[in-house]
């Protein structure tokens, strides 16, 4: 019998061993995932200040690794909020460390993305990462660090403090990693294009390993209001969260505990709930036994009288910005956008926004290109498993006079304090019935608008064609009849042409 | 024969045609000038509006009218094409130029008036014929097919460059082509006292060689199958202007019979036109009874022939006893014979025996 050994592994070790679940599956996926994680951190950093993001990304060739993979240097610069110097090592060198654990609509959620990229680079190239950041104060901090995987701790190799004469604010992250850019290229470029589509207020610059420059320029300085932090809604909590709240709460009775730590729970609701759950309002939450905590969680989910979560903490893109983004990146002839009213699943508020673009540069492919977004992140993989795709396929488009041969593209955007991702790789959205229903309603609303547009356009086209035919033939009739009748002057047909439009309305 | 009288016919008709075209133009011009959408009325050519008129002895159009309105978007293009065709015809006739149906189709393109195809342009020409009740040859538009004439008739050309030039139609043994120049020529003098129209080129040549024109004082016309309209009009002119009877010789089958009938009573397709028929012309053979009487070598009728015979039997143009009798006989003997069949009795038998007998019989 083989001898079993037991050992503890760190979070860094765990995620390194299971890097597939974070999207670092192979050299091509890895270079894509690394780029995207850093860009998303930068977007978050700029948006949290309501500053239109300026992001510069450069991938450069740094040496051969094997016949297929090469070593690349990835550099991402932003004009975001910057990282306070004492947090830099942990923010970039300790897995599951992040500033985004509160309930707030953000791209980052797990405290993992940036580190997975750095970790992957470190494992494949054995070189440190370099982080330069300033929050706009008089100094700029530069760290060279590696991650101690076994202990999940940053290893600081070098640290410099520079004078910030120009009061620069932002962050630069640079490290080497192994990858297969040429395989990843289409996805990376698609990623930038779609990111530009849902962030029309951002300037994105990308220089690829061949030195090619891709520029996505903002079309507006308008930005949505930044999302606000919020408390968890009683329907959305689990035992883990309850335990954490009990640990940190300064309140010593259930009444105060409920009122202060939960979203949309006031005194009346709290009292009703405690009656419903048969819990004394004076009970000290710190004294709840484990089975009582489990019961509390169940009762919270059962109680029907909690008000639905308030979505004012969310930051949807808004119809105007969505329209601007779609027009800018897809260059359609026409786009209809539709924002749904806020809704909630399992205590998490969410808002669905959809766009249907028609004509222009949109190809006729027999299937509609689908652009999926979550909290302004494009989702590029596992399309078939996504809820949007299922919903789009289940809609009877012909009812709206939309057929597969038309140049139509569809975009869906979900924003929420908790996107129901199926994996930490953030690639597709689980099929929550509430979410599916909202997407369907949004698409139907947009489809009706599109239908109205198509009908109106058809009418205008018909009018144009009519007028075109009359203005082509009437002058000829005038000319030939005048010549035939031996008249010098051709009869004036302007009045007749004017009247052409009016009989169409006469008939209708 | 008094040449003077004939001479005015062509000029007079030319004047009528050109003033018809001009007044059509004026009518449209005036409607436009008043600020109205112009429209043109013409007899309907749909089958329900085609009747056989026993008085006129040809198909005619009934009272049903159609109106082409420039206000109607679906009429606009054909309306414009019609006005252009009238304009173009006027250019042709006033400049004394001729053209073919094909020419018209192509000429339209020079005026950005593209016709979809030849058929569309032909239809518009037929419309113009219907509106003005002149045939396209009057507008100097001719089809491609040509037939020929031979015999002692002196004509005088009116076409530019040949005005006043005369020609005797015996001057070429192959005959003279019945083209635009001959169609518009005046008849000056003749010694002939009859016209013989022949379906086939071989027999026409035989008749010329055998001197039929002299022996029988005849003008010979080759129809070359179904007679072109210019030829039908030409035979009518010979019949009317020279006041001589016309005899038609065709193959002995329903198709030959119908070639003769169209020359005599016209076709439904030309119900909107007059002056293409020669109602007094005679079909002189080859009859079904000739096949029997002359014991001609014959082929059996096939299905299409028989079907055609039944159609003709019900056709109002065929109601005369002679036609009905011959149709019945064809159906009885179920045989058909070509004109060449007489060659079994020697090459000249048809001229020496058959022709005089039939001319006498159908006098
Ligand atoms: N460009 C940046 N500017 C400012 N702060 C940053 C930047 N990049 C990372 N950070 C900080 O570092 C933290 C860790 O980032 P990381 O990408 O590892 O996790 P996350 O973004 O919180 O979650 P996720 O795993 O979903 O990406 C962030 O929460 C943020 O506070
Ligand atoms: Mg992140």
Which key phrases capture this entry?
heterodimer, A: 508 residues, alpha+beta, Heat Shock Protein 90, Helicase, Ruva Protein, domain 3, eight-stranded mixed β-sheet, six-stranded mixed β-sheet, 13 helices, globular, B: Arc Repressor Mutant, subunit A, Dna Topoisomerase Vi A Subunit, Chain: A, domain 2, binds adenosine-5'-triphosphate, binds magnesium ion
Percent helix of chain B, as a range, is 40-55%
The shape of chain B is: globular
CATH top-level class of the largest domain in chain B: Alpha Beta
CATH topology value of the largest domain in chain A? Heat Shock Protein 90
What Rg of chain B, in angstroms, do the CA atoms define? 22 Å
CATH level 3 topology of the largest domain in chain B = Dna Topoisomerase Vi A Subunit, Chain: A, domain 2
Instruction: Please give the alpha-carbon distance between the first and last residues of chain A.
Output: 90 Å
Strand content of chain B: 15-25%
Major interchain interface with per-chain residue totals: A-B, 21 and 27 residues
Low-confidence stretches of chain B: 1-5
Strand order in the sheet with the most strands of chain B: 10-7-13-12-14-15
Short description:
With 508 residues, chain A is of the alpha+beta class. Chain A has helices at residues 11-17, 27-47, 88-93, 113-125, 181-198, 239-248, 254-261, 267-277, 290-302, 319-330, 387-394, 433-485, 494-507, and strands spanning 54-64, 70-78, 129-135, 139-148, 153-163, 169-179, 203-207, 213-216, 334-339, 343-345, 348-358, 370-374, 377-379, 408-416.
Note down, in words, how this protein is organized.
The complex is a heterodimer of chains A (508) and B (363). Chain A is α+β, with helices and mostly antiparallel strands and 508 residues long. Chain A has 4 domains: 206 residues, Histidine kinase-like ATPase, C-terminal domain (Heat Shock Protein 90, 2-Layer Sandwich); 69 residues, Helicase, Ruva Protein, domain 3; 135 residues, Ribosomal Protein S5, domain 2 (2-Layer Sandwich), CATH 3.30.230; 54 residues, no CATH class. Helices cover 38% and strands 21% of the residues of chain A. Chain A contains 13 helices and 14 strands. In chain A, a hairpin with a 2-residue loop joins strand 12 and strand 13. In chain A, helix 2 runs antiparallel to helix 4. The longest helix of chain A has 53 residues. Chain A starts with 10 loop residues before the first helix and ends with a helix. In chain B, the strands form 6 sheets. Chain B has a 6-stranded mixed β-sheet, sandwiched between helices. In chain B, strands 9-8-11 form a 3-stranded antiparallel β-sheet. Chain B has 2 domains: 136 residues, Orthogonal Bundle (Arc Repressor Mutant, subunit A); 215 residues, Dna Topoisomerase Vi A Subunit, Chain: A, domain 2 (3-Layer(aba) Sandwich). Chain B has 363 residues and is an alpha/beta fold. In chain B, 45% of the residues lie in helices and 17% in strands. The complex binds adenosine-5'-triphosphate (ATP) and magnesium ion. Magnesium ion (MG) binds next to helix 2 and helix 4 of chain A. The site of adenosine-5'-triphosphate has 22 residues of chain A, from helix 2 and helix 4.
